[in-house]
Amino acid sequence: MFEQQEINSVKVGDKIKHFLILNKLEVKTTVKNKLFLNLEFKDRSAQIPGKMWEKFENILPSLKEGEIVFVDGTMGEFNGPQITVDKIRLADKNDNVSINDFLPKSIIPLKLMIDEFNETVASVTDEYLKRLLVKIFNDERRNKFFHAPAGKTWHHAYIHGLLEHTLEIIKICELLCSIHSDINRDLLITGSLLHDLGKTDELSYDNVFDYTDKGRLIGHIVIGAVEVEKAIESIDNFPVYLKEQIIHLILSHQGKLEFASPVEPKTLEAIVLYQADELSAKANAYKYAIEAEKNKGNRWTKFLHLANTSLYIPDDFNEKET
User: Fold this and answer.
1) What is the mean pLDDT of the chain?
2) Domain residue extents for the chain
3) Which of 53, 94, 135, 145 has the most crowded Cβ, counting Cβ within 10 A?
4) pLDDT: is 233 or 310 the higher one?
5) Contact predicate 88/70, CB 8 Å
6) pLDDT at position 83, please?
7) Can you list the positions of beta strands (E) in 68-227?
8) What's the fold here for domain 110-285?
9) Domain 7-101: which topology?
10) Strand 15-29 with 35-42, pairing
């Protein structure tokens, strides 16, 4: 793998000579009707906007979103860091860079997470739920599930993020099961494993993270519920009450109708899953939001619309742990 300074550690005024993924490419017009390029770049550490004000007409036809480009410019600032681009070109084979060099990945070793996933599936004792999990997580689905991010930008938005997010939820659910013996542990753990199954089809993540056509048209909740229902129908004598509760866990895991859940949680297990999902997602999102701005010398992050607040950056925030 090639090495270069991560984009989130470049200071204002520093020169930029970086290979980056071109996340967004738009031709726009200033108030004086002058054309310019509105750009967005990313590496493993951050996404950052950019502007190119002149001499881009010849290179423009060769540029494409999702491709690796070499950027020559300066780190500026306008409502946050922004690259002023002097020159830009597509990377070629002689540059010896790969798309995998730029995609963020979980810092947790994949093998450890796969072992934990396998142990969790093996721990389910209910015959029908175990058969459902084995049927769902065939080799093809496992490979997609282990590789996928959990989101485009907000939380666990990196390779293997879906697996990491799922295992976090399971740990939270196991804790609640140890406190409340009335929870159906097998049902809750199965729901935790399956709740975001549809994200393997909702998101594309070969270069930039984005939504697929299927993801935009249907959404991961419905995609997952339909797939699980099909799998259940292929299992002889699968109990109807288990089927209905598993589907309910998937449909209700985002908690509120305004958060895109087709139905709100109506069982003890569904309430626990929703809260565990929220806790995992928000803790991860807030942690990375703090990390992204810690090195800028700020005491607070910028206003985060999805959090509806700015976040305090403590002096002892441990960047290595994130």
Assistant:
1) 91
2) 7-101, 110-285
3) 145
4) 233
5) yes
6) 95
7) 68-77, 81-90, 203-204, 210-211
8) Hypothetical protein af1432 (1.10.3210)
9) OB fold (Dihydrolipoamide Acetyltransferase, E2P) (2.40.50)
10) antiparallel
